[in-house]
TrEMBL record:
Main location: membrane
GO molecular function: transmembrane transporter activity
Entry similarity comment: Belongs to the binding-protein-dependent transport system permease family. FecCD subfamily.
Residues that span the membrane, as ranges: 21-45, 80-100, 112-131, 137-158, 165-188, 208-228, 259-283, 295-319, 325-344
Tagged with keyword Metal-binding: no
Record-given protein name: Iron complex transport system permease protein
Mode of membrane association: Multi-pass membrane protein
Annotated keywords: Cell membrane, Membrane, Transmembrane, Transmembrane helix, Transport
Entry's localization field: Cell membrane
An example Gene Ontology CC term for this record: plasma membrane
Organism expressing this protein natively: Rosenbergiella nectarea
CDD domains: TM_ABC_iron-siderophores_like
Amino acid sequence: MRPSLLRSAEKPLRLGGKSILLSPHALLAGSLLTLVIALLFIFSLTQGELPLTLSDVYDQLTHVQASASLSQTLFWQMRLPRSVVAIVAGGVLGAAGAVMQSTTRNGLADPSLLGIKEAACVVVWIELLFFPTLSPLWRPISAIVAGLLVTGIVMLLARGTSSSRFILIGIGISWGLNALLGVILTTLDPKQAQQLMLWMAGSLQQATLDTTQLMLIIALPIFVFLLYSCRASTILQLGDATATSLGINPLPINRLRVIGAVILTALTVSTVGSIGFIGLMAPHLTRRIVSGGQSYLLCGSALVGALLLLLADCVGRLAFAPTQLPAGIIVALLGGPFLFILLWKRATRR
């Protein structure tokens, strides 16, 4: 692994009578990423089929109008939910990818390559088609259960095998589930098929502030737990024997972290559809920016993931305007070559 651009040598930061260890370089990198995300977020609010000026955005955020104007409807029902959910979903997928890669010690362990999102898609599709009266609250629950089931199958089949076989098993299950999705599609009328295909492509157009709020309510506690477990995970990177000698039991920690990553991935699929490769790219890009323990990787991957998905959504809106491409397609156009480069580098090292 190449050295990162910023070294994360930790220094004590005193807060009152206590001190915590922080990396100034990692803090700088995080601040810069946050600034870029904020600027891109503001830019995204102004762009679309009907552009808004910065003055329009400011007026919508600071003034409540008595009657709903076109700009008000456009801002609150389309632009703002879409940009917010891009940041939240991208951050969630980036964090999930970092956890999967560190826990399995496999740089190719992306939730989109292990069948998790396809399993979540299958159950969400079944709910939408055959149980349309069910509360939307059931979607994340059923998606999470399906994701956990597929993850358990992959890890059981790949137990004691190489990392390449682990990925191949996940890809095989993904293909099988994709075939099942194809069978479901053939039974639908054209209108239903078009709606579900748009959802499968990872479109953020149907995002609402309510669904984003639900995602945050579920994702935030899980992210806090994953962040809390980062210290133990950093020690686990030294090997199970070393971790055991230091009083850390690897099995329950790894299982809980994988469960957390699966929940985050399935939650995103149930909210915005199938978006792949964010969990693969974000951790690798983060390692190029800042080095250090698992806490830096987790937080950095969340920021990079948020930036990637928000950028992909902006490109999808503007590249072929007035036609808009789903963000998932733009991410896939980047993620495919990225995966090829990773595989090629692994092959050349042997």
